[in-house]
């Protein structure tokens, strides 16, 4: 329970972002905060099924969530990476894995040795044969990582789960830790005439809820940060033109894969997210290149099982608010910005905002330095993910539709153009101290979409070519054998975390 001097935190909006914030603040700032979360059943949530990044495991652990219990209740499956089909050319397929290429224990990244042999004319296997996560995904196998010193420990994993079930799961945790939920719709935001801070929000039934810090989890509307405080939105649709999605679940009649699929379509791409009880599908597209009716028909034709609902239309715009923390309001999730789900970054961005807020937790008088540092961190996350997503579209050779012609030829941010040129010349990845996607992620997408380096780290030239090739052949065989010895993905789930029955 919070004491009388606790800071009053008002979270506007529930769903995944709201209840993640409520659960984390209640768990990690006991007695420091008093939490009121306001949500309306009439508004509902966007959740259509979530694919995540490995970072969610650490977040769940901090909340004391047992993995098997979480997976049972959210009907989750495991995720080793993302398969991209038809992106570079129609017929192409590659996996962006969670893990390293090679053994991951060298001062020189593995792909430099691979590039050296390729340029020297050796018949070197595809790079993904040197990734534990890729080979497990291709074989439909799963087990938890082994000894970090062995190839069985060179991969990570995330989850694919039902987002509609995740929020209630988090709500139970948050309320058990003292957070209070208020049913209602916010109709007015009261601002202080001098400071510009939010004093209170007023509900449709007349109730007034005061707070010291307000967390905007109101979704695309951005009720507090965008509407009440007027924080401008940076529109990135010139680089990421997809602005709609037609989402539709179906019965699972094909493999329950330990990976998410992103399959290119004439005006965008479609996702396939296999859960324990159904498969999530959706067509992410640009309305400038295909109509809503055509997109709905396309996803209905594309799904691999009997549909369980009609396509649900979602509208969005790529970009972010110029600042995510303004005065005494912090926006988290869609209220802060939106980047399409191509690389499963939505929950990661929520998690990073919550983590940064905790690390920069304000005293009664919020310091400008804390706000500025929070905004710097969140801006970097959005900007670097933006460049990574644009890479998928721009690095294509497809010319079979107006959409692909546009993204292939569009001007791109200088920050991405410089990264691409550096990789083409030297195979070098720009190093980040902050940001989600590390070297292996960029290498997987570059090479998967035929951005091939013409040079490599000179240190990779030291081992004799023949010995290096033999070592690579042995490593490839070891990885394949290790993957084959693992349980099938669905068999592992049936033993470890079979889904709970519906309430």
Enumerate how many helices there are, as a single number.
Answer: 15
> For the CA atoms, what is the radius of gyration?
23 Å
What's the shape?
A: globular
Largest sheet: 7 strands, mixed
Structural class: alpha+beta
- CATH architectural category of one domain: 3-Layer(bba) Sandwich
Average pLDDT taken over every residue: 95
Task: Tell me about this structure.
By secondary structure, the protein is α+β, with helices and mostly antiparallel strands. The protein has helices at residues 15-28, 55-62, 67-74, 110-119, 132-139, 163-176, 223-228, 292-302, 346-359, 368-394, 402-409, 414-426, 439-448, 465-484, 489-496, and strands at 7-12, 33-39, 50-51, 77-79, 81-85, 93-97, 158-161, 180-183, 186-191, 198-203, 208-210, 213-216, 233-235, 244-247, 260-265, 268-274, 279-285, 312-315, 319-321, 325-326, 329-331, 337-338. The protein is globular and about 75 Å long.
Task: Write a brief caption for the model.
With 503 residues, this protein is of the alpha+beta class. It has helices spanning 15-28, 55-62, 67-74, 110-119, 132-139, 163-176, 223-228, 292-302, 346-359, 368-394, 402-409, 414-426, 439-448, 465-484, 489-496, and strands at residues 7-12, 33-39, 50-51, 77-79, 81-85, 93-97, 158-161, 180-183, 186-191, 198-203, 208-210, 213-216, 233-235, 244-247, 260-265, 268-274, 279-285, 312-315, 319-321, 325-326, 329-331, 337-338.
